[in-house]
Amino acid sequence: MTSVVTLHELRIREEIDIVHVRQTVREVAVSVGFSLVEQTKLVTAASELARNTLKHGRGGTAQVELEKHDGSTVVRLVFRDEGPGIPDTELALTDGYSSAGGLGLGLSGARRLADEFDLHTTPGEGTTVSVGFRAGRAAT
Amino acid sequence: MSATSVIEMGDVLLVTVQGELTDHDAVALQQDLAANVAERSSRGVLIDVSGMEIVDSFLARTLHDIAAATELLAAKTVIVGMRPEVAITLVELGLTLPGLATALTVADGLAEFGDGVRPL
Ligand SMILES: Nc1ncnc2c1ncn2[C@@H]1O[C@H](COP(=O)(O)OP(=O)(O)O)[C@@H](O)[C@H]1O
Ligand SMILES: [Mg+2]
């Protein structure tokens, strides 16, 4: 049995919204029993992706979902924007590549931190990045 | 939402960062510190990050830039008290912060500056 619930839908329009995303995601991670390291990875990835939504995607939304599978819980974050899109996703996912003078570790780093990573983008239409984090594989 | 305090300990500045920092707060801290170091001819800057629950790439870069700027002003920056889970996450993110001096405790960090630093 798998169930999916959307817990939060957050707007990302200004810098303070990145902080709100981090706080909301932290609360969810704590409530489903993520370890401290798992919480930190999740919140850090959320911070990177929220910033990308704001800075590269010209703002958008973050959706926080909870998926329950048999005996396991996944927190999924979906970041959506209607910005310029990413013309070359392989390049964008290369460590150190930034089109904007950044460190270029946000997208590639978030992929490493997450258990599941999905990127959909259409130049001129926007970008959706989805990351899934599983709670410690120890039994629940 | 975030509280950043700067205390002078002899010729070392002890900076404590706590809570949630926006990108703007981080850049403001960088500018304040450079101005402070120049004005007081500080020998060192100790940044206590033990109150920080996450450090993402933007903040890591800011810490790195603070260290680079203070170095040009003849002061050394030491990052103190990073939480283990933050360190683990930073490495996985791809950030190893080469060249950034670190210490586990404020006392250890102060020792980096040798004599002449008065305890509080
Ligand atoms: N939501 C987005 N919309 C458009 N481009 C994006 C988006 N997210 C990432 N990118 C592109 O991918 C590059 C790499 O992203 P990232 O690794 O986070 O580095 P940085 O944010 O430091 O530039 C960005 O510089 C940008 O060109
Ligand atoms: Mg980024």
TrEMBL record, chain A:
Domain Histidine kinase/HSP90-like ATPase: 37-137
GO molecular function, one term: protein serine/threonine kinase activity
SUPFAM superfamilies in the record: ATPase domain of HSP90 chaperone/DNA topoisomerase II/histidine kinase
Statement: the UniProt record of this protein carries the keyword Kinase: yes
Database matches in InterPro entries: Anti-sigma-factor_SerPK, HATPase_C_sf, HATPase_dom
Alphabetical UniProt keywords: Kinase, Serine/threonine-protein kinase, Transferase
Gene3D superfamilies membership: Histidine kinase-like ATPase, C-terminal domain
UniProt-recorded name of the protein: Anti-sigma regulatory factor
Species in which this protein is naturally found: Prauserella muralis
Top-level taxonomy: Bacteria, Bacillati, Actinomycetota, Actinomycetes, Pseudonocardiales
Automatic annotation (TrEMBL), chain B:
Signal peptide annotation: none
InterPro entries named in the record: Bact_StressResp_Reg, STAS_dom, STAS_dom_sf
PANTHER family per record: RSBT ANTAGONIST PROTEIN RSBS (PTHR33745:SF1), RSBT ANTAGONIST PROTEIN RSBS-RELATED (PTHR33745)
Name of the protein in its database record: UDP-glucose 6-dehydrogenase
Organism the protein comes from: Prauserella muralis
